[in-house]
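in:
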């Protein structure tokens, strides 16, 4: 009864302290802040208990699921006192949230978000000494995940798409998309050594969304032409094709499309092209003589995933010949702690974190059995002729070595042997494509 007064007192006296201790706390709905502050006061919850509760409350709010306060049940601990009582209550609510995580995510009850496009675009003179060539941040120390040693090229910085799971937004601040007005000069000054053969431009932005705006593709084409021994990969979720026929693209450039189930594109990959639009754009690129590739990444464990990902594979096989496709990669959601914090404090409604978060190799992802089931279904959908020598190179992106054998019936003893196999496959494809031209 005096509940309203009690809550008011808690709200004014305690929520500020909790927001300092737990930065995500301030992003919670106001009623959940008050509820947790009250329970913190009543049960004398520890720092770790509050941290876990705040994270779960933030996730439930982003998922548009029932709030933490409605999952709370103190009657299970009626006979307990003190720390044991608090632990029993907290464990019970965490178990309820975990049950939600372990189930296939249901998007049928989740509305499609209205996301406004990013508008500010700023062309900036880049210092020619800026480091624009780096390496993919996916590897961790040692060889806990199988890594292909991809080099990354920051031709454009920041993306105009708004995928809920994307880490690019954690690299850069604000919505400005940064182009370099002297990209050609920067590329000419790059020193490419013998270890650099596979370069991708999709780490800092979408590679083809911009077409040849500000001369981006022309500069990259000149760079690839100057270095015929490299494979320059341009990865996209766009449907832009006006650059085809306008820019002379050498055959060592591979245009690749990230594909996903239609439900995930609609609900989580905001502002991107539809699956059909991406495939049609890829078909135009292949018709122009370019090698193309596909990344089924990130695969998401949701209700209907089996049917939808099987349809994606069928669509690829019906539109393309295996010799036209350089690679097909499979991968799933993988998060670092900073990205998790950013997603939880973003306020953007999303069910992308409605998953069982298992720590592996310093990052958080699905349990291995879930991954193996998803990857096996996707790979198993490709006909036998796609797995022959002239077909695409299939690989797992940022995944554990022990997943390769159950999925592909092959594996690599270390990263160097994986990279060597990819190198042979890619450059062999490029050479055959040059011969056909």
């Amino acid at each position: 009864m005096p509940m309203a007064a009690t809550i008011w007192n808690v709200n004014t006296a305690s929520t500020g302290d909790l927001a300092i201790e737990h930065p995500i706390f301030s992003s919670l709905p106001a009623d959940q802040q008050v509820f947790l502050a009250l329970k913190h006061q009543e049960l004398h919850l520890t720092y770790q208990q509050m941290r876990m509760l705040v994270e779960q409350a933030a996730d439930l709010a982003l998922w548009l699921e029932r709030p933490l306060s409605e999952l709370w049940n103190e009657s299970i601990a009626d006979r307990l006192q003190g720390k044991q009582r608090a632990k029993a209550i907290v464990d019970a609510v965490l178990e309820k949230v975990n049950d939600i995580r372990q189930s296939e995510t249901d998007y049928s009850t989740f509305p499609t978000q209205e996301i406004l496009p990013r508008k500010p675009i700023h062309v900036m003179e880049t210092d020619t000494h800026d480091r624009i060539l780096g390496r993919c941040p996916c590897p961790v120390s040692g060889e806990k995940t199988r890594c292909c040693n991809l080099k990354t090229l920051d031709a454009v910085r920041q993306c105009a798409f708004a995928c809920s799971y994307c880490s690019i937004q954690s690299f850069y601040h604000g919505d400005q998309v940064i182009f370099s007005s002297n990209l050609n000069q920067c590329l000419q000054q790059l020193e490419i050594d013998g270890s650099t053969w596979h370069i991708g431009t999709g780490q800092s932005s979408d590679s083809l969304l911009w077409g040849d705006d500000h001369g981006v593709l022309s500069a990259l084409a000149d760079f690839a032409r100057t270095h015929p021994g490299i494979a320059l990969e341009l990865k996209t979720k766009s449907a832009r094709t006006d650059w085809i026929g306008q820019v002379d693209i050498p055959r060592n450039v591979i245009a690749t499309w990230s594909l996903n189930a239609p439900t995930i594109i609609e609900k989580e990959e905001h502002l991107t092209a539809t699956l059909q639009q991406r495939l049609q754009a890829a078909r135009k690129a292949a018709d122009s003589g370019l090698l193309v590739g596909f990344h089924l990444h990130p695969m998401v464990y949701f209700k209907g995933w089996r049917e939808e990902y099987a349809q994606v594979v069928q669509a690829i096989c019906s539109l393309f010949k295996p010799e036209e496709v350089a690679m097909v990669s499979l991968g799933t959601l993988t998060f670092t702690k900073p990205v998790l914090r950013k997603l939880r404090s973003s306020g953007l409604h999303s069910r992308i974190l409605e998953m069982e978060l298992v720590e592996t190799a310093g990052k958080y992802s699905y349990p291995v059995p879930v991954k193996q089931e998803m990857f096996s279904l996707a790979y198993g959908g490709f006909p036998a002729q796609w797995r022959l020598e002239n077909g695409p190179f299939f690989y797992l992106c940022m995944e554990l070595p022990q997943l390769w054998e159950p999925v592909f019936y092959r594996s690599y003893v270390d990263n160097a042997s994986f990279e060597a196999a990819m190198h042979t496959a890619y450059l062999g494809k490029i050479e055959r494509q040059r011969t056909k031209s």
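note: Residues 103 and 355 are 8 Å apart (CA to CA).
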